[in-house]
Here is the input.
Amino acid sequence: MDIPPAITALARLDDVDLDERYRLLAAAIDAVPDLQRALSAGRAEAVREMKAEPGATWERVGERIGLHYARASQIARGVSGGTKRRPPTDQP
Here is the structure.
């Protein structure tokens, strides 16, 4: 998995002055979208590997990860969870 360097650099926080700590933290915040993509890709790969095991079904994979089989399949394909639509709240 390719963790962005700005994220791995956080391990040095205790060894730097305040100016450098600020720079490291600011760079890490900017790298969060890249980290999220890397983590999602790693999660998808793990689910695909589970499904590739002999005798595996989406139902069994879903049980293993505690999700519905359809969501397990979506994760393997890289489909994000998204957000649920909420009904309008401007009731008279």
About this structure: The chain has a mean pLDDT of 92. Helices lie at 5-8, 18-52, 58-65, 69-77. The radius of gyration is 19 Å. Residues 3 and 37 are 9 Å apart (CA to CA).
